[in-house]
Write a structure and sequence with these properties.
- The protein is built from seven helices and 15 strands.
- The protein folds into two domains: 102 residues, Immunoglobulin-like (Sandwich); 171 residues, Mannose-Binding Protein A, subunit A (Mannose-Binding Protein A, Chain A, Roll), CATH 3.10.100.10.
- The N and C termini lie far apart (122 Å).
- Helices cover 25% and strands 21% of the residues.
- The N terminus is likely disordered.
- By secondary structure, it is of the alpha+beta class.
- The radius of gyration is 39 Å and the shape is elongated.
- The longest helix has 44 residues.
C-alpha cells in the first residue's frame, strides 16, 4: 500500500508540474504576442503622409510669352492639409526636362527660399534669354514637406529676326562664287547659300541658325509664300536691322503696305535691293532676271525700295539686270 500511495503522489505531482509549465509557456507566448501586436499597431496607426495631388492632372499653361518672360498658370493641388497652407514653386531650365521630382532635386533648382508664402496658381517668370527653349514645371509642398510635381511643359521665348544686306550683285546672283559653297539644286538654294556665307563672315553676332534670301523667285517661291515654304519661321517675332532698330513687329507687319522704318534709316541698305516682287510680296514673274540667272541689260528685275516705308517691297519700275543692287537676307 505504501508503494502504491507514493506512486500515486508522484503522478499527481508530475501532472501539476506539467500544467504549471504549460501555464508559464502560455504566459510567455502571450507576452510575445503582445509585443508583436504593439509593433504592428505602431506601424499601422502612423502611416506615412501622402504628397499633394496636382490639380487638373498636373496641366501647366505657358502664356504671355515675351523675349524675356512667361506667365505660368496651373490648378491648385488637393491634399489632406488645408489648401491655404500648401506652398508652390516654379522651376525653369534650358537643360533639364524637369520630368520627375528626382530630376528636379538632383538639378539643385529647387530652393528653400523660393517656396511661396501662400497658395498661388500663377507666376510670371522674368530674366529669360531671347529666343531660347525652356522647360518648366511646378512643385507643390505640404506642411510635412511632402512634394509633388506637375506635368512639365516647354516654351520658347520670343526672339528676333534680322533683315540684313548680303551685298550688291547683278541679276545673275545664283552664279556668284559664294553661292556655290554647298551643292546647289535650285535658285533658292543658291541665294540662301549666298546669304548664309555673308551672314557668317559679316554678321557673326546675328543669329546663325536659320537664314533665307528675302526675295521672290517664282509664283511658288516668293516673299509672300515664305511662311508656307519655311514652316519654322517665327511669324510672331519682331524684325530688326543688324544695328538693333526695329523694322516691323511681326511677319504680317513686315509684308503689309508699310514698315516702321525706311531701310536706309534702319541701316539695312543705302540703295535699291533686288525684290522680284509686287507690292503684296507675290512674284513679279516677268521681272526676276530670268530666275536671277541673267546679269545682262537684256533682262529686267524688280527692285524694292530703301528710301520709303510705304510699298517698300516693289519700286515703281523695272531695272536692268546688269545693275548692281542689294540682296537682302532674313535670319533668326
Amino acid at each position: 500500500m505504501g508503494y502504491k500511495l507514493e506512486y500515486t503522489c508522484n503522478a499527481v505531482l508530475m501532472v501539476i508540474a506539467i500544467v504549471s509549465s504549460l501555464y508559464m509557456l502560455s504566459c510567455t507566448d502571450d507576452k510575445i504576442n503582445t509585443i508583436i501586436q504593439d509593433e504592428n499597431n505602431y506601424n499601422t496607426d502612423k502611416p506615412l503622409s501622402l504628397a499633394p495631388i496636382p490639380g487638373n492632372n498636373g496641366l501647366l499653361l505657358a502664356s504671355n510669352i515675351t523675349e524675356n518672360s512667361v506667365k505660368m498658370q496651373w490648378t491648385f493641388a488637393n491634399d489632406d492639409s488645408p489648401s491655404e497652407i500648401l506652398q508652390y514653386q516654379v522651376i525653369v531650365s534650358q537643360t533639364c526636362t524637369l520630368f520627375s521630382l528626382q530630376e528636379i532635386l538632383q538639378s539643385g533648382l529647387l530652393e528653400e527660399d523660393n517656396w511661396s508664402n501662400q497658395p498661388i496658381n500663377q507666376s510670371t517668370i522674368t530674366n529669360l534669354s531671347i529666343g531660347k527653349l525652356y522647360h518648366a514645371n511646378v512643385c507643390v509642398r505640404d506642411p510635412d514637406k511632402n512634394i509633388a510635381v506637375y506635368t512639365p511643359t516647354s516654351f520658347t521665348t520670343k526672339g528676333r529676326m534680322y533683315l540684313f544686306s548680303a551685298g550688291t550683285y547683278t541679276g545673275d546672283m545664283i552664279l556668284q562664287k559664294a553661292s556655290r559653297v554647298v551643292v546647289i539644286v535650285s535658285a533658292r538654294d543658291a541665294l540662301n547659300a549666298l546669304c548664309k556665307s555673308v551672314l557668317q563672315s559679316a554678321y557673326p553676332d546675328l543669329p546663325q541658325d536659320n537664314v533665307i534670301a528675302f526675295i521672290s523667285i517664282d509664283n511658288e517661291d516668293s516673299i509672300a509664300t515664305i511662311p508656307i515654304n519655311f514652316a519654322g519661321i517665327p511669324l510672331d517675332w519682331p524684325v530688326y536691322s543688324p544695328s538693333g532698330i526695329i523694322i516691323a513687329y511681326n511677319w504680317n507687319d513686315l509684308v503689309d503696305s508699310s514698315i516702321n522704318k525706311k531701310l536706309q534709316d534702319a541701316g539695312v541698305c543705302d540703295s535699291f535691293w533686288w525684290s522680284g516682287s509686287l507690292v503684296d510680296g507675290t512674284c513679279d514673274t516677268l521681272n526676276t532676271c530670268n530666275g536671277w540667272a541673267d546679269g545682262t541689260s537684256s533682262c529686267q528685275g524688280r527692285s524694292g525700295a530703301h528710301n520709303t516705308a510705304e510699298q517698300w517691297l516693289s519700286s515703281d519700275y523695272e531695272r536692268n539686270c546688269n545693275n548692281q543692287h542689294h540682296l537682302l537676307g532674313l535670319c533668326w
